[in-house]
Design brief:
The complex is a heterotrimer.
Chain A (H helix, E strand, L loop, with lengths): L12 H27 L7
Chain B lengths: L5 H28 L9 H35 L7 H23 L17 H31 L7 H32 L8 H29 L1 H4 L7 H14 L16 H13 L1 H21 L17 H23 L12 H31 L6 H27 L15 H4 L2 H31 L27 H25 L12
Chain C lengths: L4 H27 L26 E4 L4 E8 L2 E3 L2 E5 L3 E8 L4 E5 L5 E4 L5 E6 L4 E6 L12 E7 L4
Parallel strand pairs in C: 2-5, 4-10
Antiparallel strand pairs in C: 1-2, 2-3, 5-8, 6-7, 6-9, 9-10
The chains are: A mainly alpha, B mainly alpha, C alpha+beta.
Chain lengths: 46, 540, 158
């Protein structure tokens, strides 16, 4: 692994912000779904 | 028109016509679920059209488009005609004959079993035989792709496979491994059963074989779309591919991880132990990784393009991108919709949590973002870019092509959002009418089914525009010298040498080993259990 | 392989996120409380009505909770109305006499396929008394959208 500076104007900082925000929403959304919808509706055992 | 392009063009035209027919059926379905009293509205016609829409979109449109696009990639990236053109044409005619046989069974009302055709719902044998022929035709395509690659490899020892071809080879390998499941289901279980040669069939075994095929089928659709995202989109956007080796890694991860995940479609099935469902759930989360990497690499490629076009600041480059180009806007909007589809997929794959969404309208909301947008919208954009180049004609009705992706986007937002929500509210998928005898809970779905119908109407208008552009271009486009099919350059010179990532045989073996780990033991235990088969039913 | 540094940050973060998801699900599995219905038991679909396990459909209540025996058929559930006590574990046992159906208690996590030849079983507790809609959520023929039932959750009598 090497630390190249990939863009003429530096790193793709806009991409990191956009995709980072998506990742954050993804994580928060998933755990919110798990706790607020799934667990609240009550567990099921086989 | 180049003579060699007749082969891909034949496939692409079948795909486009199948898409047009399927889009027409979809409109009626979306309106029916909003309880609109249309002329000829009947459960018989509704479920028949759901079957036809599913088969034509998910199997016929996708498979023919991918076969045609695959031939374009093979001939253009390796700069040689395909090996075995006669086998390729045999595959085309077999697949077409199979499509027509299945379509005849569906349209005459003898195969209203939906595109998942779960037994003991029993269709006319022509339906199963037709599907089998379609798969055999696609195997001919896979063989031609591999054969052409092997011939190129002999002449270019040690050279890295062109990236687009690398992605198509991954697609072919996933397809060969996946179709073993559906071939076993259809040839061993369903055809003898529908012909009356055996009396019963085990529904859980059939479901297991179907979903062994059904999930990698998703990657069979998605990988050619990723080929466009990685190797066409950056070029059209005026930039370069951000990272060539990561793109290669992503395709290899899909070869390895696509198949051992099928039980995540059977979380709610009896007869499958929870431990095996859990293993498949965890592997499914593994396959999130290559898509996360793709999101970054492709977005960064667009940032490269925007900055090369003079964009500045944190997000100023977005405005410099060619939003008026139909390939660009189709793919960019497909990616935005897929961001939502990816999130929904992670919910679906979450083991016990699947109970919240299983077989609700959420599911149709979900897969219209994935196959219905990430894949279908990308393929439409690809057609705008590719068909003029193959036909040697100008794109006709360019204004319709410019606005069509945006109409699709808005229509899909309406359709998908409302179906996700009604799904969470408990509305089942695949229902003719959601009234449930005036039940109060069901009445709460009503407003959103209307939003879904508006979305369906917009999607239909968008599909009609696409068809007009395609037919206009094919029949009346002004002839001109065909522009070359060009692929994106990587930002940093790619390694010209073949690496471990080009060892397709090795990765196919790794994939098969994982498949054996994930399926062999549970299948063996299942087959040894005392089981009772079911005779066929045709309640349609 | 040379990986640009920002992309490496993203790849690490997404790897951590995936591990977090898997860990959460594995914890539910290990606790034995958060699993999909995965009961393994077979039955002859032609003999459901005479099989001792399903000959008597309906609800049995004892001090621990309740057991519901129900059958899916084109295009109804038998029984069509199910009464169970609130706040006590209720075990559902279901099978089909014809094609594959779905059994979904709207607004709850009660959701299972009902497959001929197999017995579906799951246990859950209803904390909210009231009337629930049960729908078939797997296409089973031309009247699929009419296949439904009622679940009535009753507050235990003092």
């Amino acid at each position: 692994m090497s630390d190249e500076s990939p863009l003429p104007g530096g790193h793709p900082k806009g991409t990191l912000v956009l995709i980072g925000l998506y990742g954050l929403l993804f994580a928060v959304g998933w755990f919110a779904f798990y706790v607020l919808i799934y667990l609240r509706r009550g567990g099921v055992t086989p | 028109m180049n003579r060699g392009d007749r082969l891909p063009l034949a496939h692409l035209w079948v795909a486009i016509l199948a898409f047009g027919a399927a889009a027409g059926m979809a409109l009626m379905q979306a309106l029916s679920r909003a309880s609109l009293e249309l002329p000829w509205r009947s459960p018989k016609l509704y479920y028949l059209s759901v079957t036809a829409h599913g088969v034509l979109m998910a199997i016929v449109f996708t498979t023919f488009f991918i076969m045609g696009f695959g031939y374009v990639v093979a001939t253009r990236t390796m700069d040689r005609p395909v090996r075995g053109p006669r086998l390729a044409w045999a595959g085309f005619w077999l697949a077409l004959a199979g499509t027509l046989a299945a379509a005849a069974a569906i349209l005459t009302g003898r195969a209203t079993v939906l595109y998942t055709f779960y037994p003991p719902l029993m269709a006319h044998p022509a339906f199963y035989i037709g599907l089998a022929l379609l798969v055999v035709g696609s195997w001919c395509w896979g063989a031609v792709m591999v054969w052409s690659y092997v011939a190129w490899r002999r002449e270019h020892p040690g050279q890295a496979t062109p990236l687009a071809m690398h992605g198509m080879l991954a697609t072919v390998i996933v397809w060969f491994i996946a179709t073993i499941g559906v071939a076993a289901e259809v040839l061993v279980l369903l055809i003898p059963w529908s012909l009356g040669l055996v009396r019963t069939v085990d529904p859980v075994l059939a479901r297991t074989l179907f979903w062994y095929f059904g999930h990698p089928l998703v990657y069979f659709w998605l990988l050619p779309a990723y080929v466009v995202w990685y190797t066409v989109l950056p070029k059209v956007a005026g930039g370069k591919l951000f990272s060539d080796p990561l793109a290669r890694l992503v395709f290899v991860l899909f070869i390895v991880l696509s198949t051992p995940v099928g039980f995540h479609h059977q979380f709610m099935d009896p007869g499958v132990p929870a431990s095996w469902k859990a293993l498949h759930a965890f592997l499914t989360f593994g396959i999130l990784f290559p898509s996360f990497v793709t999101a970054f690499t492709v977005t960064a490629s667009l940032e490269v393009a925007g900055r090369m076009r003079g964009g500045t600041g944190l997000l100023g480059w977005l405005k410099k991108l060619p939003w008026g180009d139909p390939l660009f806007s189709s793919v960019a909007l497909a990616m935005i919709l897929f961001a939502g589809g990816g999130f929904g997929g992670a919910i679906n794959a979450s083991f016990g949590m699947n109970a919240v969404v299983h077989n609700t309208a959420w599911i149709q909301g979900h897969f219209h973002l994935t196959v219905g947008s990430a894949v279908a919208l990308t393929f439409m954009g690809t057609a705008y870019w590719l068909m003029p180049r193959l036909l040697g004609r100008e794109l006709e009705l360019g204004l319709l092509a410019k606005i069509q992706p945006y109409i699709w986007f808005v229509g899909m937002m309406c359709f998908s959002f409302s179906n996700h929500i009604t799904g969470l509210m408990g509305m089942p998928r695949r229902i003719y009418d959601p009234a449930y005898g005036g039940d109060a809970v069901a009445a709460g779905w009503r407003a959103l089914t209307a939003v879904s119908a508006v979305g369906g109407l917009l999607l239909f208008i968008s599909a009609a525009f696409f068809m007009m552009v395609m037919l206009g271009t094919g029949l009346a486009g002004k002839r001109k010298a065909a522009e070359p099919v060009e692929w994106a350059e990587p930002l940093h010179p790619a390694n010209p040498r073949a690496t471990l990532l080009d060892r397709y045989g090795l990765w196919a073996i790794v994939a098969v080993v994982l498949v054996v780990i994930a399926y062999a033991y549970p299948l063996w235990v299942h087959l040894r259990m005392e089981r009772f088969g079911s005779p066929g039913f045709s309640p349609f | 392989m040379s990986v640009p540094v920002y992309e490496r940050i993203w790849m690490r973060a997404s790897g951590i996120l995936i591990v977090a998801f898997i860990t959460t699900l594995a914890a539910g599995l290990a606790a034995g409380a958060l699993q999909p219905p995965s009961h393994v038991e077979t039955i002859d679909p032609a003999k459901v009505w005479t099989d001792p396990r399903f000959a008597q459909t309906g609800v049995t209540v004892d001090t621990h909770g309740a057991t519901v025996i129900a059958v899916g058929m084109m295009f109804a559930f038998v029984p069509g109305e199910i009464r169970v006590p609130a706040h006590k574990p209720v075990t559902f046992r279901l099978t089909s006499v014809d094609v594959t159906h779905g059994f979904e208690i709207v607004g709850t996590n009660g959701n299972t396929m009902v497959v001929p030849g197999y017995v579906s079983q799951f246990t859950t507790t209803f904390d909210r008394p009231g009337e629930y809609l049960i729908v078939c959520n797997e296409y089973c023929g031309l009247s699929h959208h009419l296949m439904s039932a009622k679940l009535i959750v009753e507050e235990a009598k003092p």
